[in-house]
Amino acid sequence: MKCLLLVDIQNGFCSGGNLAVPDGEAVVVVANRLMAEGGYDLVVASQDWHPADHGSFASQHPGRHPFDMGTLHGKPQMLWPDHCVQGTADADFHPALDRARIDHVQRKGENRNIDSYSAFRDNGHEALTGLSRYMIDAGVDRLDICGLATDYCVRDSVIDALLLVPGVTVRVVIDACRGIDPAGVTAAIAEMSDAGARIVTSGEVLQGVKDAAISAHRSSR
Ligand SMILES: [Zn+2]
After folding, report:
1. Is it the case that residue 180 has pLDDT exceeding 90?
2. What is the DSSP string of the chain?
3. Domain 2-51+83-220 is of which CATH architecture?
């Protein structure tokens, strides 16, 4: 079962959003192409979905500013601008993302007392979102991951997929990802690779699908 996980391709992380990732919206066209031509059996999208008083927001920490380091749940926490508040346009998927091809949406970040970068569980590793159970039940054994942002939610989702979905092979489609901090992106790529993920381009993914179709055609003759 071949699955594509789109991480947080939401207005809030694209230009004009409350926590815009540089060039974030550039992932949309690549994600659409992957959904249409990548030969996936299942497409899942995660959605950052915070209550208005979420503890990761600098606005909830008097005297602190966005991108200060603070604490949440006893752990160091990057304090973010208010973003992806439930029911707001900021939390919607990017309007150009081909939603009709998404089979399942996994929301995260709903508990105000802890952040959740990973689509699979919170940052304290206390509560699962349910996505690992969903993928195990669906029989996912090949998983491609892309989205926003490389150095936070993509990284943590990739590492958790390898830990929480037994036997899965994971590829990161890197040209369908954008990050916040260039040094953080470099470190995240090394971490994902060290954890066992392959870093690939969408061109390699789509060429692989074409090659498989050609060899299937040849062997059927
Ligand atoms: Zn968030």
Report:
1. yes
2. -EEEEEE--BGGGSTTSTTPPTTTTHHHHHHHHHHHHS--SEEEEEEE-B-TT-TTBGGGSTT--TT-EEEETTEEEEPBPS--BTTSGGGSBPTTS-GGG--EEEEE---TTS---SSSB-TTS--B-SHHHHHHHHT--EEEEEEE-IIIIIHHHHHHHHHHSTT-EEEEEEEEEE-S-HHHHHHHHHHHHHTTPEEE-HHHHHHHHHHHHHHHHHHT-
3. 3-Layer(aba) Sandwich (3.40)
